[in-house]
Amino acid sequence: MTEKTVDARGKLCPAPLIMTKQALGEIGMGETLRILIDNEISKNNVERFLADNGFVSTCTTESGVFTVTVAKSKEELGKVDVQTYCTPAAAKAAGHVMVIAADTMGTGSEELGGILMKAFINTIKEVKPLPSSIIFYNSGIMLTVEGSPLIATLKELESLGVSILVCGTCVNYYDKKDLVRVGIVSNMYTILETLTAAQTVIKP
Hints:
four-stranded mixed beta sheet; Hypothetical Protein Ychn, Chain: A; about 35% helix
């Protein structure tokens, strides 16, 4: 049986999705496609796209690389909608958006700034309405990576419908792409689109 491999390592959403759809269109019925991805969020988005289009896939992991395997079982494929697969639905909703540009809050003492930022994020869920999105960029992305004391709080906000967008350029700059533990690694187009659609932008 013919097998095709798509190497999407180092690619951020929506590139792995687009590469997957293109490859599926190039192989024949019953043939197998292997997609190599080194970003868990992109892997999840590819798996969701496949499932939504009626494909059954399997996934294995080795040395930080996910291998998603799928056999072509149908010809028709849905559109790769970046907003659907790379941005949670909450990001589309009008409302206020929060922008976290640093892992501390205010100027002066770094220690105090860290305490204030932690208190700020832990308090978000207590204030209604909730933001439609929280965008993390520059050193703010440190609050979304492994070791951050705020991962559980941010995951709880996600479960309540808040979109967590993490700047992909910033993640790469700080070499943290394998350590993001919450949210979607996004791009500047989606971030700008989210900010433009917001009724209010809050930056602590």
